[in-house]
Amino acid sequence: QVQLVESGGGLVQAGGSLRLSCAASGRTFSSSGVGWFRQAPGKERGFVAAIDWSGGRTYYGDSVKGRFTISRDNAKNTVYLQMSSLKPEDTAVYYCAAERPPFSGNYSPLPERYGYWGQGTQVTVSS
To answer: Nearest CA to 56 among 96, 126, 107?
Structure first.
């Protein structure tokens, strides 16, 4: 069983930066691919970024490419999402997600590939 806890959300002005953290319990976290997703009011949950088990491969949604960076520190059981040049349209609840066993260890933009989800952290970008 893996529990995920997101933190680092908040209110920021457009053009600003935030770093989200996803801290995991459980020793198997370092074997799993991890993704970040977001959901704005009235919209479906959408893919933001994903990273493989080693941190060596990453994948981004088109709307955040070049502005967001996903990384991980397996020694700390934590995945990060560094967000820069934030826009009002980035306002959403941000969720991290991790694979269930058996692990592929790969990254994926598909929410159905992930079995563990955090509770989410609110990011609000003011114009």
So the answer is: 107
How many other C-beta atoms can be found within 10 angstroms of the C-beta atom of residue 57? 13
**Is the peptide bond preceding residue 101 cis, with omega within 30 degrees of 0?**
no
Q: What is the pLDDT of residues 61-110, one digit of tens each?
A: 999 999 999 999 999 999 999 999 999 999 999 999 999 888 888 999 99
Q: Give the burial class of 68: count Cβ atoms within 10 A of its Cβ; 0-12 exposed, 13-18 middle, 19 or more buried.
A: buried
Place of tokens 């990254």: 107
pLDDT score for 102:
82
How far apart CA 100 and CA 84 sit, in angstroms, is 30
Partners of 82 in the β-ladder: 19, 69
The SS3 of residue 2 is: coil
